[in-house]
Design brief:
Elements: H1 3-10, H2 12-31, H3 34-65, H4 73-105, H5 111-140, H6 146-164
Length: 170
């Protein structure tokens, strides 16, 4: 198993677990239920751990695929930049989750404030996660790239122009 395989095996977890944690935290805050909020905090810590694994395997995965046809260094660089921002947000969310969990268990007066700070960080992480997932998918799934639609339209236009010019198309 190489770094590309390992990266593909772990990179979905930080994104999915962040979304789940965000939803669970919203429900926990709405219901004012500490057990539900604590579940979200644990999920954010898990997401941060998987972010560490994703970042650790990302560079090796890059080295294996950057020179393949239809994969450019530019698209990988964009993904890497977003992934770094996402990882930092997840690390911060994980740290605040640990603080929130501790303050919740100890019934600390800062528990509510920490909950909302964790919610804001997890919302930011969820938003950045969308870009990270999309940019990562674009590396190998050329059909979801923005330029793939423009390329398709240009190809169709080229075929139309050829048939109008009197050249034969098969």
């Amino acid at each position: 198993m190489n770094d590309a395989h390992l990266h593909l095996a772990v990179n979905h977890f930080p994104i999915i677990v962040t979304f789940l944690g965000f939803g669970i935290l919203v429900v926990g805050l709405f219901l004012k239920n500490n057990s539900v909020k604590n579940t979200a905090y644990v999920l954010f810590v898990i997401a941060a751990v998987f972010a560490i694994a994703s970042m650790a395997t990302g560079e090796g995965a890059e080295e294996l695929v950057e020179d393949l046809p239809s994969i450019g260094k530019k698209i990988i660089h964009e993904h890497e930049e977003l992934a770094e921002k996402f990882a930092i947000l997840l690390y911060a969310t994980g740290i605040f989750s640990l603080l929130s969990l501790y303050s919740s268990v100890k019934n600390n007066k800062f528990a509510k404030t920490l909950s909302y700070l964790t919610l804001i960080l997890s919302l930011a992480a969820s938003i950045v996660a969308i870009g990270v997932g999309t940019s990562g998918g674009e590396i190998r799934h050329t059909e979801i790239r923005n330029d793939s639609v423009n390329s398709l339209i240009k190809s169709v236009d080229d075929i139309k122009n050829e048939s109008h010019d009197g050249s034969e198309t098969n």
